[in-house]
């Protein structure tokens, strides 16, 4: 996260005949991707593929679709890695860059960092998911309408996120953008609008299934608003926005495979497979972006990525019918939202950048009184380097996802 600065073209002065042309100054290329870091992260995929090939007995056609989707996602990963440096040159030419506030006072704080590189991830993701339709869906597939509606929402949100990066819209408008982007899904949604009443409440209510009707669609829209903005405000460190997305998407993949392997309902399996078809490309392209955005960041993701990632996870949670589980995966984001609420509501003055205080002498960050999870961790743990603080926050994100799995295990059969 950085402060964006626009360059204003200087007024051109008429050149005299004896004046020598000035040499054009070009920005240095961005740093190469961090392949060693990516290799360490790739080891976490071993449990996922173990569950697919060995632990669970999954239908051959379903496994085939998942593998094809994984192959296309891998292609998307390499395309994203290749395209980010190309896009960086273009955004720098248009003066779309930022300075890293958490490195102010050091040589790295004066480097122009390309902004809004989440647009590359969004475009590659959409291409991969559209091409995948050729391998998995037929023209009369019941899932095709909702699949394309989901892609329309994600595309709409990516566009609005890029508009936000360019125009820098105010917060009250940012809250409305996900509501607009979620309209294609809400209009095309043809699934059930019922919820299962928790078993301890059934004797008191008298029914097991409750049809919410339009209230359920309202809930879907609010979930999209929360997911997109919660990723956007839980930010401010190199790699934090993409890192939390990677952790949550990995947890979603594990959850989907576990539900497919444990269920005997074909429709239920297809719902979770639908989620996998969108989450695998999200994870692959996000890892490619993380290789450039990890500390020290050579690119900034911008609101384009945070909106895109949040909307994608909201869509898979809604159409995969595990929105309750998704909210527990988002537990750190929920806590960050609750801490931020007094400032976001205007009850307490809210500065433009609610970032920690950086000491260039020690290279450490110190927490401020702003209501963010980043500052809360610093106030409790003491001054930390930016990299170590980000690791602590991502570990906390992983703990929240593990807590969700434990909660589902203990409440299974008793709660629902």
Automatic annotation (TrEMBL):
<keyword id="KW-0808">Transferase</keyword>
<dbReference type="GO" id="GO:0016757">
    <property type="term" value="F:glycosyltransferase activity"/>
</dbReference>
<keyword id="KW-0460">Magnesium</keyword>
<keyword id="KW-0472">Membrane</keyword>
<keyword id="KW-0812">Transmembrane</keyword>
<feature type="transmembrane region" description="Helical">
    <location>
        <begin position="175"/>
        <end position="197"/>
    </location>
</feature>
<dbReference type="InterPro" id="IPR033895">
    <property type="entry name" value="GPT"/>
</dbReference>
<feature type="compositionally biased region" description="Low complexity">
    <location>
        <begin position="9"/>
        <end position="24"/>
    </location>
</feature>
<dbReference type="GO" id="GO:0046872">
    <property type="term" value="F:metal ion binding"/>
</dbReference>
<keyword id="KW-0328">Glycosyltransferase</keyword>
<dbReference type="GO" id="GO:0003975">
    <property type="term" value="F:UDP-N-acetylglucosamine-dolichyl-phosphate N-acetylglucosaminephosphotransferase activity"/>
</dbReference>
<feature type="transmembrane region" description="Helical">
    <location>
        <begin position="307"/>
        <end position="331"/>
    </location>
</feature>
<feature type="transmembrane region" description="Helical">
    <location>
        <begin position="218"/>
        <end position="237"/>
    </location>
</feature>
<feature type="transmembrane region" description="Helical">
    <location>
        <begin position="117"/>
        <end position="137"/>
    </location>
</feature>
<dbReference type="GO" id="GO:0016020">
    <property type="term" value="C:membrane"/>
</dbReference>
<keyword id="KW-0479">Metal-binding</keyword>
<comment type="similarity">
    <text>Belongs to the glycosyltransferase 4 family.</text>
</comment>
<feature type="transmembrane region" description="Helical">
    <location>
        <begin position="243"/>
        <end position="262"/>
    </location>
</feature>
<dbReference type="GO" id="GO:0006488">
    <property type="term" value="P:dolichol-linked oligosaccharide biosynthetic process"/>
</dbReference>
<dbReference type="GO" id="GO:0005789">
    <property type="term" value="C:endoplasmic reticulum membrane"/>
</dbReference>
<protein>
    <recommendedName>
        <fullName>UDP-N-acetylglucosamine--dolichyl-phosphate N-acetylglucosaminephosphotransferase</fullName>
        <ecNumber>2.7.8.15</ecNumber>
    </recommendedName>
</protein>
<keyword id="KW-1133">Transmembrane helix</keyword>
<keyword id="KW-0256">Endoplasmic reticulum</keyword>
<comment type="pathway">
    <text>Protein modification; protein glycosylation.</text>
</comment>
<dbReference type="InterPro" id="IPR000715">
    <property type="entry name" value="Glycosyl_transferase_4"/>
</dbReference>
<feature type="region of interest" description="Disordered">
    <location>
        <begin position="1"/>
        <end position="25"/>
    </location>
</feature>
<feature type="transmembrane region" description="Helical">
    <location>
        <begin position="389"/>
        <end position="411"/>
    </location>
</feature>
<feature type="transmembrane region" description="Helical">
    <location>
        <begin position="66"/>
        <end position="87"/>
    </location>
</feature>
<feature type="transmembrane region" description="Helical">
    <location>
        <begin position="144"/>
        <end position="163"/>
    </location>
</feature>
<dbReference type="Pfam" id="PF00953">
    <property type="entry name" value="Glycos_transf_4"/>
</dbReference>
<feature type="transmembrane region" description="Helical">
    <location>
        <begin position="35"/>
        <end position="54"/>
    </location>
</feature>
<comment type="function">
    <text>UDP-N-acetylglucosamine--dolichyl-phosphate N-acetylglucosaminephosphotransferase that operates in the biosynthetic pathway of dolichol-linked oligosaccharides, the glycan precursors employed in protein asparagine (N)-glycosylation. The assembly of dolichol-linked oligosaccharides begins on the cytosolic side of the endoplasmic reticulum membrane and finishes in its lumen. The sequential addition of sugars to dolichol pyrophosphate produces dolichol-linked oligosaccharides containing fourteen sugars, including two GlcNAcs, nine mannoses and three glucoses.</text>
</comment>
<feature type="transmembrane region" description="Helical">
    <location>
        <begin position="274"/>
        <end position="295"/>
    </location>
</feature>
